[in-house]
C-alpha cells in the first residue's frame, strides 16, 4: 500500500473514531491497523536509513563465520590504529585506542563490538559510554560525525577532532542492540525486543570491560547518548544501579546520565509535536487544530501499550507515528532532524563515508572483525524493538534522582522529531521530591566563551538544557558547546550560580 494512501485512510479512520460511537477496541482490531503493523515499521526504518545516505548490505548483522579469532569466549581487544589516520596530532599510542568484541554470557551466540578511547589527559578522568539510537543505528555515527576523537577528511582519510569527548573522558562507543554495527549473532533468539534485554546485555558488557580494565573501574561512570537512547539510557542506568545495590560483580561508579534529543516519555512528547511545529511555523493554526484531533486516540493506545503490551504497542506506534507524518506532509522537504535545512531528493544527511570506510578490508583488519560486514543501521532491530517504542522510560528516573544520580536532558532547538519542547514538558511533569523546586527554578544562560549557547534550568541532580543553533545531533552542530556541556556537567558546574545568577562556565 502506498504510504500516502495508507495515511489518508488511517487519518479518516481516526476522525471517524472521534465523531462516532466506533469503539476503541474495534479500532485496534480493524483490518487497516492489523495489516499495517507488518509493513509500516519496516517502511519507516528503511526511509530513515536512506535519508542518511546509508545502504547496509544486510538488514541485521547475523554473521556466522569460521574465523575463531572473532569468536571469543571473553573480551578480545587490540590496540587500534587506522591506517588512514593523519599523524598530525597526538599519537594513537599516547591515547590508547582500542577495539574489541565481548561474547555476551546471557545469549545464544551474541558478540558485542565496541571502541574504547582512553582520555588524552588523565587515566583518572571519568568513563563515558555513548549509545546511539535508531533503534538499530551504530554508535559509529557519533564516533565519526559527532564526538569521537576524529572526523572524516577528504578521500576517506581521518583528521583529529578538537572537540572529541576523549578530551575530558575515557570514551566508549558500543554497537547495540545486538545486530547493529559490527555486533552480531548467529542465532535469531539473541535479537532484543525490550529494554530488559538491551540493558542486561549492556550491563554484562560493562562487567567484562571493567574486568579487562580494572584501572578504570574506580573512575566515575556516566551514560550518554541521543534519540532512541532516551529509552536505552534510563533502563541501563537503572540496571547498573540495581546491580550496585545487589553487589553483583564489579561495582560501577555510576554518577549520572545525559540524554540528548531523546524519546523518553512518548505520551507527552507526541502531544508536543503540533505545538512545536506551529511555534516553528511548519504548520498553520488550522493544521494544528486538525491534527490535534488525532491525539486522544494516540494517548489511549499508549496507555493500552503500557498496561497490555503486545499488539497494543504496535497499534500505538502506527497511530502516533501518523501525527508526525501528517506534520511532515504539510512541512514538505524540511529536514526533521534540523528544520533550518531541507532534504534534497530524500537525502537529509550524507553519512556514506562511514559505511564505505568501515567496510574496507584494511579497516576491518585494524579492528579485528574479520569478514564481518558493517551494518550501519538495522531495519530488523528497528522492527524488533516495536513493542518497546511507546513505553514510558521516564518512570524509572525519579528513583535514580532520589539516590543522587545526576540527570541531564539536553536538546538542540531546531530538531523536530525529538524536539526540545516535548522533552522539556516531560522533565517538568516528572514526579520526584524536587519537582516543585525544579519547576520554579529560573531559566538561565548556558555560556560558552562568554556568549550564550543555550538556556538551562536546574535543581539538585536534575538539569535541562536547550542548545542554541543545533538540531538533533548537538555534538555535530555545536561541538564546542557540547564538549563544554559534558565537562561542566561532570565537574558539577553545570548548575545555577546563586551569586551570579547564571550558568557556571570555564
UniProtKB/TrEMBL annotation:
Class of this enzyme: hydrolase
Cellular component aspect of the GO annotation: extracellular region; vacuole
Key words of the record: Carboxypeptidase, Disulfide bond, Glycoprotein, Hydrolase, Protease, Secreted, Signal
Gene Ontology molecular-function annotations: serine-type carboxypeptidase activity
Subcellular localization: Secreted
Signal peptide: 1-25
Principal subcellular localisation of the protein: secreted
GO biological process: proteolysis
Pfam families listed in its UniProt record: Peptidase_S10
PROSITE patterns membership: CARBOXYPEPT_SER_HIS, CARBOXYPEPT_SER_SER
Entry's EC annotation: 3.4.16.-
InterPro entries: AB_hydrolase_fold (IPR029058), Peptidase_S10 (IPR001563), Ser_caboxypep_his_AS (IPR033124), Ser_caboxypep_ser_AS (IPR018202)
Family (UniProt): Belongs to the peptidase S10 family.
Biological function: Probable carboxypeptidase.
Record's protein name: Carboxypeptidase
Protein source organism: Cephalotus follicularis
Amino acid at each position: 500500500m502506498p504510504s500516502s494512501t495508507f495515511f489518508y485512510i488511517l487519518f479518516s479512520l481516526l476522525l471517524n473514531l472521534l465523531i462516532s460511537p466506533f469503539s476503541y477496541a474495534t479500532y485496534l482490531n480493524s483490518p487497516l491497523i492489523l495489516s499495517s503493523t507488518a509493513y509500516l515499521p519496516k517502511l519507516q526504518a528503511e526511509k530513515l536509513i536512506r535519508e542518511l545516505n546509508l545502504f547496509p548490505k544486510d538488514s541485521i548483522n547475523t554473521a556466522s563465520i569460521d574465523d575463531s579469532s572473532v569468536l571469543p569466549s571473553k573480551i578480545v581487544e587490540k590496540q587500534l590504529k587506522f591506517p588512514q589516520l593523519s599523524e598530525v596530532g597526538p599519537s594513537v599510542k599516547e591515547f590508547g585506542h582500542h577495539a574489541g568484541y565481548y561474547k555476551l554470557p546471557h545469549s545464544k551466540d551474541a558478540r558485542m563490538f565496541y571502541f574504547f578511547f582512553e582520555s588524552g589527559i588523565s587515566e583518572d578522568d571519568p568513563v563515558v559510554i555513548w549509545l546511539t539510537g535508531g533503534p538499530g543505528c551504530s554508535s559509529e555515527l557519533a564516533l565519526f560525525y559527532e564526538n569521537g576523537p576524529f572526523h572524516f577528511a577528504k578521500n576517506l582519510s581521518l583528521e583529529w577532532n578538537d572537540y572529541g569527548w576523549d578530551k575530558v573522558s575515557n570514551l566508549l562507543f558500543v554497537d547495540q542492540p545486538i545486530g547493529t554495527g559490527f555486533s552480531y549473532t548467529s542465532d535469531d533468539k539473541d535479537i532484543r525486543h525490550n529494554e530488559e534485554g538491551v540493558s542486561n546485555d549492556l550491563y554484562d558488557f560493562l562487567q567484562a570491560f571493567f574486568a579487562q580494565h580494572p584501572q578504570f573501574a574506580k573512575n566515575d561512570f556516566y551514560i550518554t547518548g541521543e534519540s532512541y537512547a532516551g529509552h536505552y539510557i534510563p533502563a541501563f542506568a537503572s540496571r547498573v544501579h540495581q546491580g550496585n545495590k545487589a553487589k553483583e560483580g564489579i561495582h560501577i561508579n555510576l554518577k549520572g546520565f545525559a540524554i540528548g534529543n531523546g524519546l523518553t516519555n512518548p505520551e507527552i512528547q507526541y502531544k508536543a509535536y503540533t505545538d512545536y511545529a506551529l511555534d516553528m511555523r511548519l504548520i498553520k493554526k488550522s493544521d494544528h487544530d486538525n491534527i490535534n484531533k488525532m491525539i486522544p486516540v494516540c494517548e489511549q493506545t499508549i496507555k493500552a501499550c503500557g498496561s497490555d503490551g503486545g499488539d497494543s504497542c504496535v497499534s500505538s506506534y502506527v497511530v502516533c507515528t501518523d501525527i508526525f507524518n501528517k506534520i511532515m506532509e504539510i512541512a514538505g522537504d524540511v529536514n526533521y532532524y534540523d528544520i533550518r535545512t531541507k532534504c534534497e531528493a530524500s537525502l537529509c544527511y550524507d553519512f556514506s563515508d562511514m559505511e564505505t570506510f568501515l567496510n574496507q578490508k584494511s579497516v576491518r583488519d585494524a579492528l579485528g572483525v574479520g569478514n564481518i560486514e558493517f551494518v550501519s543501521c538495522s531495519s530488523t532491530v528497528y522492527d524488533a524493538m516495536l513493542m518497546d517504542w511507546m513505553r514510558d522510560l521516564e518512570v524509572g528516573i525519579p528513583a535514580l534522582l532520589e539516590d543522587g544520580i545526576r540527570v541531564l536532558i539536553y536538546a538542540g532547538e531546531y530538531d523536530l522529531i525529538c524536539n526540545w519542547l516535548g522533552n522539556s514538558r516531560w522533565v517538568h511533569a516528572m514526579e520526584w521530591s524536587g519537582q516543585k523546586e525544579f519547576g520554579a527554578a529560573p531559566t538561565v544562560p548556558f555560556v560558552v566563551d562568554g556568549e550564550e549557547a543555550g538556556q538551562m534550568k536546574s535543581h539538585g541532580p536534575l538539569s535541562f538544557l536547550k542548545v542554541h543553533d543545533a538540531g538533533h545531533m548537538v555534538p555535530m552542530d555545536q561541538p564546542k558547546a557540547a564538549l563544554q556541556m559534558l565537562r561542566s556537567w561532570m565537574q558539577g558546574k553545570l548548575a545555577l550560580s546563586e551569586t551570579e545568577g547564571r550558568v557556571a562556565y570555564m
